[in-house]
Design brief:
By secondary structure, the protein is α/β, with parallel strands linked by helices. It has 7 helices and 7 strands.
Length: 180
Amino acid sequence: MTRITSEAFGRLFDAFSATADRIELRDYYRSDLEDEVVRRFVAGEPDDMAWSKPWLDMIRARTEEGKLFRRVRVVTVPLSEYQRCGVMRVAPHNIEAGEDIRYLDRAQATDLDLPVFDYWLFDVGTSAARAAKLLFDDRGSFLGAEIITGDPLGDLSAAFGRAFSHALLPEHFAEVHRLG
């Protein structure tokens, strides 16, 4: 595996040609920005989502090019305020931009043989296929990524497929878990 910086990781979203699939396994991702977003959500304050505009604009641009973004968030129920914010406030904007986000109860994921790390899969099934194993410190702050190529991609792709097929759209997840 080749370790890359946060900046090099960001460039992967300019370089992929067809698909970008993400699996999130952590219950919490820490950044000063996300801490403030959750604080506003918990306080019932509005959020114009300006902080996510670059990401949402990038998703829109890529999906308009015919590229596919999919994400599965494996979450612990009952949800933390951080996770509730993701389901109720953040995910709808990502979906509107073109990303297909699904939620999977961690209790249901135990039989799916998922990896123990977060990753993005890019262009699976093509000669440019690769994965980015995401690295975090103990507090959940992003440190960078390691690029994975070759044989492990089949297992990572199959794991994503299993998770995606069992996961629910945010509105269905919210209904099942009475989040509204």
